[in-house]
Amino acid sequence: MAGVLLAVGPAACGDDGTADPGGPTATTGADEASPADCERGALDERPYILCTSGADEGQGLVIALHGRPSSAEELQQGTELHVLAAEGGLAVVYPQGVNAGWGDDPFATPSRPAGNEDVVYLDRLVAELRQDPHIGSEPIGIIGYSNGAGMALRYAAERPDMVRAVVAVAGQLARDPAVRPSGRVPLLAVHGTADPVTPFDNGLPDTPDRGPRDPTPTLSTPDTVAAFVSMASGAVTHRGPEEVDPDPDDETRVSTERWVDDEGTVAVLRAVVDGGHTWPSARGEFSGGGFGPISQDIDASADAIAFVIDPDAVG
Hints:
single chain, 315 residues, ten-stranded mixed β-sheet, 6 helices, 23% strand, globular
């Protein structure tokens, strides 16, 4: 296992020059009441936080990818995915992206000249962590927020045999046609319909003069879901939308649709009506940049872990 790190440096904000894998310093040990044990490690000089469920061996692994510009620590503190995962006997790793972000499509930049560096890195991270007796060898779950969601979708699209389920919060599949699902992977998409950063209905357009600091062009959220549904096994049944508003004071409602094939749930879309670029029911000060209200109608962290455990249990 790679060596333990004592601290992590400050995050780079959108600069795609020299790699700076840092993020704000934070305490990564689990709360006294938490069932998760967390420690820092590093692979290829890129830090990560690994949280396991006590001393249990052979735990399922979940990768959680932060947005841009952000950090592993911020996602850990703001979502507490590891706490919920440990209750279900799963381990969670929060890796730090280069320049506080992820290469969610093949676009080449100075720090990602081949365009596939982050896919290769995640391959190596999974292989490295599986040397730990806490971690089992079954397919992983992968969860992401914003740019991290785009990376999670890309990884699931390119490595369907390695991924049991993917969860994208406020993120979309890259517009580049090279990034399309190549096998069946159940998808949970959670996205605000009023998201000003990655618009729900349109995604982000192609830009012919795209630079290394520019956001990735993306498909719309409905088209992202459709791409994963296209890999379904056999006939597909569509259910919904069904709208609920458990917390009428939070400015949002939630509309849920589900696609089911011969193997079970292939996709669930939770559209956060009037929601912004945020993580629903975020913990602490984590809001995803403050772009719109934080919905309290659903708990994205609880849904994400439940979906990784059993896609049929959410929705």
